[in-house]
Inverse folding.
């Protein structure tokens, strides 16, 4: 197979949802279709349930699972699918944002009873920003859910995206009869007792065919005809190009746990989902077909065995072909690196690979040289953009409680924040270290890991901070004098970029108004 053929048969995507909407269940069904797993129950949920927030064994167990399920590769109809896992727990939202930089499209799962939920809203905002194509899967049709039109309206309004149903439910809950695929023009019947097999699809080219009455009864046949008519008039014709541009999201209905509507979703996905897309460095657009290899690290996972400090860096191949045992250029560190055991992920299994193509995710053993966002190339001095840190929401001072272990504490903080568990800021005035996160859970994780992996102890002291804003100015003198004037509120991030620590929305606003020459940024890349 040529490199071009390899690129064109790859689809790299992520499933996003609010916890409990059915992401894990859908993942499992997709893997079953791909033959990547043999039985239901093989994919363990990596969600950290609310009651488990203080249970470190649980956190460790979850970390173990999440290494295994971070990337799941499988083949379906000649297409190589790379499914990237995203943590559902909102405290790990940063992790999810970063994973979204490595995908080319997204399937969003929505619970038909609950509709749009807070986590879906946040995640979709990131997709919208990047114009990532989204397919919507409305799940749990076997439950008494909301009216499908109402759900679509809510998705459009709340998530600010345009939708186009490609399948349509017939009844819901106890009355759920099946779905009509507007994409393939067939009726798929639901039989809860006898978990549906693909053979249960009845192909009907004409929606007026009496076949429909025979299968779902007169009343539902009529409702289906009326509703599909409304769909055809209200919603635009589905144009795959518009979906690829991120302008419209096709919608499917089904029930993941019953494996219903999942095959239709997957069949459509392999047809319409984007192949690996270009990415941007600080210098240029990098196309997958470019000859020279390049890629970036979007996730780092520490070994769960504390005796081994090594980590796995997850790299997305953006262009060229990655080869085992070849020297590559680590741009930030300005040095050559060679990898003799890069791994690919096929479902829960890792295997050493010789080559990887654009769209693929590979695991590189890392002894501490990688940070999230790092670029590898064949020599080009350029760095991929679009993997920014966002302002954290919760801030705490770090207090060292074992001065004999200061070195270990510093090293631990450095490495854990390289992994992206939290962000580290250092106040310029007194060198005090501040950790910033999006959820409280990370503080427990960090404290626990510092102890068990580095032998260091610390406590956290709350600080009343609203935001950390990266600051810049076209006028260096003005920036320097602002930094001097506000020295009590200035810190540097891990890359030594200056950050303004705003105590409240009001102080931030005042600082902005009084300093029109200073730019305040919500993220580290601007
Ligand atoms: P998540 O990864 O998005 O957090 O959700 P997950 O797949 O774990 O699903 C959350 C719950 O919803 C699970 O039930 C799962 O069985 C159920 N579920 C998924 N799809 C459907 C569906 O189509 N219909 C119905 N009725 N339920 C569905 P649970 O009780 O939390 O876990 P379990 O004991 O069933 O594993």
């Amino acid at each position: 197979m040529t490199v071009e053929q390899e690129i064109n048969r790859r689809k790299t995507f992520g499933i996003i949802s609010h916890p409990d909407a059915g992401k894990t269940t859908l993942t499992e069904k997709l893997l079953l279709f791909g033959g990547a797993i043999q039985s239901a129950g093989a994919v363990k949920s990596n969600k950290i349930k609310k009651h488990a927030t203080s249970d470190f064994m649980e956190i460790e167990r979850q970390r173990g699972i999440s290494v295994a399920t971070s990337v799941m590769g499988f083949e379906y109809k000649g297409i190589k699918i790379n499914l990237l896992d995203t943590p559902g727990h909102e405290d790990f939202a940063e992790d999810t944002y970063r994973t979204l930089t490595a995908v080319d499209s997204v399937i969003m799962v929505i619970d038909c009873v609950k509709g749009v939920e807070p986590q879906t809203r946040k995640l979709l905002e990131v997709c919208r920003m990047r114009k990532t194509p989204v397919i919507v899967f409305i799940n749990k049709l076997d439950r008494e859910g909301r009216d499908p039109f109402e759900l679509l309206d809510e998705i459009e309004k709340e998530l600010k995206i345009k939708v186009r149903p490609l399948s349509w439910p017939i009844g819901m809950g106890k009355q759920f009869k099946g779905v009509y695929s507007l994409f393939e023009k067939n009726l798929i019947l639901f039989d809860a007792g006898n978990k549906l097999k693909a053979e249960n699809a009845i192909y009907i080219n004409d929606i007026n065919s009496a076949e429909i009455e025979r299968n779902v009864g007169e009343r539902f046949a009529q409702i289906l005809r009326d509703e599909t008519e409304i769909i055809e008039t209200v919603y635009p014709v589905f144009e795959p190009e518009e979906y690829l541009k991120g302008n419209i999201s096709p919608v499917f209905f089904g029930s993941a746990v019953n494996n219903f509507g999942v095959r239709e979703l997957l069949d459509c996905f392999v047809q319409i989902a984007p192949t690996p897309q270009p990415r941007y460095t600080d210098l240029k657009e990098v196309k997958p077909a470019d000859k020279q290899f390049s890629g970036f690290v979007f996730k780092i996972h520490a070994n769960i065995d504390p005796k081994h400090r090594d980590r796995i860096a997850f790299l997305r191949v953006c262009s060229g072909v990655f080869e085992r045992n070849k020297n590559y250029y680590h741009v930030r560190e300005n040095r050559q690196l060679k990898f003799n055991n890069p791994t690919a992920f096929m479902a829960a299994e890792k295997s050493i690979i010789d080559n990887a193509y654009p769209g693929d995710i590979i695991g590189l053993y890392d002894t501490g040289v990688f940070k999230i966002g790092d670029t590898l190339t064949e020599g080009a001095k350029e760095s991929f953009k679009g993997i920014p840190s966002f302002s954290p929401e919760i801030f705490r001072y770090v207090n060292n409680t074992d001065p004999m272990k200061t070195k270990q504490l510093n090293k631990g903080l450095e490495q854990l924040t390289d992994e992206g568990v939290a962000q580290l800021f250092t106040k310029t005035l007194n060198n005090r270290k501040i950790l910033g996160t999006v959820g409280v859970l990370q503080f427990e994780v960090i404290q626990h890991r510092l102890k068990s992996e580095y032998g260091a102890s610390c406590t956290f002291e709350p600080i009343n901070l609203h935001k950390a804003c990266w600051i810049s100015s076209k006028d260096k003198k003005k920036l320097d004098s602002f930094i001097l004037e506000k020295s009590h509120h200035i810190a540097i991030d891990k890359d030594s970029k200056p950050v303004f620590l705003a105590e409240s929305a009001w102080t931030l606003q005042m600082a902005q108004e009084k300093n029109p020459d200073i730019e305040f940024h919500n993220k580290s890349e601007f």
Observations:
- Residues 279-377 form a domain with the Rossmann fold fold (CATH 3.40.50.300).
- DSSP finds 14 helices and 31 strands in the chain.
- Residues 218-234 form the longest helix (17 residues).
- The chain has three domains: 3-272, 279-377, 394-521.
